[in-house]
Design brief:
The chain is of the alpha/beta class. It is 44% helix and 19% strand.
Length: 125
Amino acid sequence: MASKRKKDSILIIDDEPSVGDALRLVLEATGYEVVLVNNGRDGVETSRKRQFGFAIVDLFLADAYGLDVIKEIRAHRPALPILLITGHGSPEVFGAAQRLGAVGALSKPFQPAEILALIAKTLGQ
C-alpha cells in the first residue's frame, strides 16, 4: 500500500467552528497539515512563528477584519498564498483582497472541491 506524502501545512483563520472544523477535516483527509485558529490576533501571531504553504482567512472575525489580517500577514510573509472566504462577499471586497495579494476569494457556502482545487493549483500539486 502506497503511503500518502504529507503536503504543505495550511493555516485557517476562522471564528465559525462549523466552517473551520469542516475545512480542517477536508484538508487533513487530503493530506495537508492544518493549524486552525479562531481569531485574527492569534492568526497573525501564528503566521509569524511558523511557515505555512497556504492560508485561509475569513472576512469577519470576532476581533478583526479579514482584510486587515491579510495586510498584517503580508507584512512578514509576502509570498504566502492567502484565500479570503466570506459569507458577505461583494466585488469591492474581492477587489480589495486581490489588491492585497490574495490568490482568490470565495463566498460561503462553497464546495470543498473549490478550495482543494485552488490550493492544489496554487501550490502546483
